[in-house]
Design a protein that fits this description.
Elements (H helix, E strand, L loop, with lengths): L6 E4 L4 H12 L4 E5 L2 H8 L10 E5 L4 H8 L4 E4 L4 H4 L1 H10 L2 E4 L4 H17 L3 E3 L4 H13 L7 E8 L5 H11 L4 E4 L2 E4 L6 E3 L8 E3 L7 H5 L7 E8 L2 H17 L5 H15 L13 E9 L4 E9 L1 H17 L7 E2 L2 H5 L1 H10 L3 E6 L2
Parallel strand pairs: 1-2, 1-4, 2-3, 4-5, 5-6, 6-15, 7-12
Antiparallel strand pairs: 7-13, 8-9, 10-11, 13-14, 14-16
The structure holds NADP nicotinamide-adenine-dinucleotide phosphate.
């Protein structure tokens, strides 16, 4: 009997698409591998060893709301991995809504998260569907650590730091360059405040001696998740990479953007960051190696007279993104979705459940200290 597929992986042919396919296969979830080019989809899926014998089907279609809606009809959930999302995401969200599918994506772009929240959140809520962007390493790790920190009574301030040490994909580079040149916000006394343009900050990663340069990296998703949360008054996120030479190269590009491109119109700015992104990254990375590609997430929580430190020590952020996508649809299919409308991954599935899913596969462990 032919499979009635319930899951669409859109953008399956890319780096993160293949990692998500791997994690869907491990969970025994049949899926449609969708994208714009059938031969490329088949070729790329053939590179995922875990898909041997797994039930999936490659479907090529136009990147357009009508065609996407037809494909999504009758399915339960869509994992969208086609970015930059501010450039390419709208037809996918609109099709998910029209077809009645829960929507998950891997964005790191906080302007995209805000747009979804304002423009589509109420319509997804009205249809009892989840609208869950950034169901990915950035900004889910911070969301998970924040929820653990907020379990300490009185904590209302979240100071977050990501440290990554992985090679990046082509679309990731285009995405982070565009998002670092858009307005970036942190939450101070319940108000979103804009970070200064092209400015880096020195940070200390817990358990390390050398100071590193960090950037707001689009401001992080956490200020968006916690903007209307009565538990949280202040929330800020910074991001650093172990390879500081390359990281400082990004800081240099942001300064160049301020000098040469800030006055350009919005469409031209997007073209410039795409051009720079394609020039900086031309090759798809290999699968991450946990011995090399380690990451740290630090969430320092404060209240009036107390504090808590939550540190996630982990590895392989891109593979973690695959786990989060696959785990989300596994939980949807099992009836374990806790909330609908515009939701963070923690609201959708419970922070402890997602931490456990990542920990079970050796992708992180967490430490909580009341300091
Ligand atoms: N927040 C996080 O932690 C996190 C983690 C991982 C990824 N991401 C984000 O996820 C996105 C994808 O990343 P990736 O690593 O998979 O990048 P990638 O390897 O460059 O793949 C990009 C994917 O998008 C598809 N695509 C590009 N332009 C398209 C278009 N016009 N129409 C239809 N499909 C199109 C590509 O299809 P073709 O194969 O046909 O070119 C490919 O499947 C990026 O925005 C990245 O920033 C975020």
């Amino acid at each position: 009997m032919a499979t009635a597929y319930e899951v669409v992986l859109y953008g399956a042919s890319g780096y993160t698409g293949k990692l998500t396919a791997w994690k869907l296969a491990e969970r025994g979830i049949p899926f449609i591998a969708a994208g714009r080019n059938k031969e490329r989809l088949a070729e790329e899926m053939a590179k995922v060893p875990e898909l041997a014998g797994h039930d999936y089907q490659c479907v090529a279609l136009e990147h357009e709301t009508g065609a996407l809606t037809e494909l999504f009809k009758g399915k339960k959930a869509v994992i969208n991995i086609v970015g930059p999302f501010m450039q390419l995401g709208r037809p996918v969200v609109e099709a998910s809504l029209a077809a009645g599918c829960h929507y998950f994506d891997t964005t790191g772009e906080t302007d995209w998260m805000s747009l979804l929240k304002r423009t589509y959140g109420p319509s997804f809520a009205a249809k009892d569907l989840a609208l869950c962007p950034a169901n990915s390493y950035m900004w889910t790790e911070g969301n998970l650590a924040a929820e653990i920190a907020l379990q300490t009574p009185g904590i209302d301030t979240l100071d977050m730091l990501y440290l990554g040490d992985s090679e990046v994909s082509v679309a990731s580079t285009m995405s982070f360059l565009r998002m670092c040149t858009q307005p970036q916000f942190y939450l101070r006394n319940n108000e979103l405040v804009q970070w200064p343009w092209a400015t880096s900050y020195q940070v200390r990663v817990p358990g390390e001696h050398v100071l590193l340069n960090a950037l707001p990296w689009s401001g992080g998703g956490e200020p968006i998740w916690y903007e209307d949360d009565p538990r949280v008054r202040n929330c800020q996120t910074l991001v650093s990479f172990r390879n500081q030479e390359r990281f400082n190269g990004v800081v240099g590009l942001l300064k160049k953007f301020e000098q040469e491109c800030r006055q350009l119109d919005a469409a031209r700015q997007e073209e410039v960051t795409n051009e720079w992104g394609k020039a900086v990254t031309q090759v798809e990375p290999a699968r991450e190696n946990p011995d090399v590609n380690r990451c740290t997430l630090s969430c320092q929580g404060r209240g009036n007279t107390n504090s808590v430190s939550v540190v996630l020590r982990g590895n392989s952020p891109y593979a973690q993104t695959g786990v989060l996508g696959a785990e989300a649809v596994r939980r949807v299919l099992r009836g374990q979705l806790h909330a609908t409308g515009f939701v963070s991954p923690s609201q959708a599935f419970g922070a402890r459940n997602l931490v456990a899913a990542l920990a079970e596969e050796g992708y992180l462990a967490y430490e909580v200290k009341h300091v």
